[in-house]
Amino acid sequence: MRQNLARTAVGCALALAVCAAATASTAAGRDWKAFPAILQLDTAADVFAIGDAHGDWVRLAKVLLGAKLIAAPPSASDQVTWAGGGSVLVITGDMIDKGPDSLGVIALVRALRSNAATRGGRVIVTMGNHEAEFLADPGGSKTQEFRDELIKAHLDPKAVGNCDGDIGAFLCTLPIAVRVNDWFFSHAGNSNGRTIDALAAAIEAGAKHGFDTPELVGKNSILEARTNKQGPCGLPWFQDGCSKKHPERLLLPDYIKALGVHHLVQGHQYGDVTFPDGVKRKKGRFYQRYGLLFLIDTGMSSGITDSDNSGGGALRITGSGSEAQAIVICPDGKDTKILWSKDVTDHADKFCSRDAAPGN
């Protein structure tokens, strides 16, 4: 049954990709039935997740190659061939800015999404805060690097921000989050304790007048929330930081239960994270805590110089029930580690170096 659902979803993905340019206009005109705020998918296939590529398609390609999701190193950003069979790949946003070639990253993921759909797989790209901030204000300072790239490529940033053309249509129709089985993927994680239906409804309502809505670009939104002192009242979003009664109460169990899942995967921040009990995630590392929260932004882009030489990697979710595991695969394809399983539950991390040579 799950495999049939997955095949149906792949067919729908192909159809949506073809008609995206025709149906996207602005956030206010987005067809939320054709392009839901939150995708939902059940599958028996392996699920992979990759965090923030930030303008570095070369390093993204190395990660894909190490995870055996592409067959060979691409000769150009849009020359990729899916090798992942029926697997599902989720890319949790922030394709643009910081690195040298945001348009190259977009070209790669668009080509990979199309090619995977013809080969029985599926690539889902969710929106990151950088994409949302560009769409909210194409002239804003935070996304100046992407705007400069567009101008250099003789593309009008304002037109792209208004969802015009292939790139504009692609960005404007990205889902905000995705549920695959009992895993929930988004850029910054914070659902503010809502169900999937309530969260989707709030995003749609907020975007009626454009992408410049607190639901997308507000500082504690699902695309912007912080896991450091920039969170609510100086604490990470997953703590009840502003409560006078329980300022360090962990919100994760309640939030995840409301979403109807068991695990939450987010990108967005590669830096240090401190949990209420003092346990720390060090920057540049894949990290899981309590088997509930999985952090997959490791600062892999060459545009990020303070991430301890991280080369990024892919999180592979495989098996079911008591046999389920989440495994980090580094870009060399050989260096791997079980990040979570029935025997690894409280916390674990994995660092993937940029210096490791790709394997076969």
If you had to describe this structure to a student in words, what would you say it looks like?
The two termini are 34 Å apart. The strands form three sheets. This protein has a seven-stranded mixed sheet with strand order 1-5-6-7-11-10-15. The N terminus is likely disordered. It has ten helices and 15 strands. It is globular, with a radius of gyration of 19 Å. With 360 residues, the protein is of the alpha/beta class. The chain has one domain: Purple Acid Phosphatase, chain A, domain 2 (4-Layer Sandwich). The longest helix has 22 residues. Helix 1 crosses helix 7.
Summarize the structure.
By secondary structure, this protein is of the alpha/beta class. Helices cover 28% and strands 16% of the residues.
The CATH C-level name is Alpha Beta
Question: Main β-sheet: number of strands, strand sense, barrel status?
Answer: 7 strands, mixed
Can you write the helix and strand succession as a string?
HEEHEHEHHHHEEHHHEEEEEEEEE
Largest sheet: spatial strand order: 1-5-6-7-11-10-15
Overall number of strands: 15
The coarse silhouette is globular
Number of helices: 10
Mean pLDDT: 91
Strand content: 15-25%
Rg estimate, integer Å: 19 Å
Helix amount, in percent? 25-40%
Properties at a glance:
7-stranded mixed β-sheet; about 350 residues; about 15% strand; single chain; disordered N terminus; 10 helices; 6-stranded mixed β-sheet; Purple Acid Phosphatase, chain A, domain 2; alpha/beta
Strand and helix layout:
Layout: H1 2-23, E1 38-41, E2 47-50, H2 57-66, E3 88-91, H3 102-118, E4 122-125, H4 129-136, H5 144-152, H6 157-161, H7 165-172, E5 177-180, E6 183-186, H8 196-206, H9 214-217, H10 252-259, E7 263-266, E8 273-274, E9 280-281, E10 286-289, E11 293-295, E12 314-318, E13 325-329, E14 336-340, E15 347-350
Parallel strand pairs: 1-5, 2-3, 3-4, 6-7, 7-11
Antiparallel strand pairs: 2-12, 5-6, 8-9, 10-11, 10-15, 12-13, 13-14
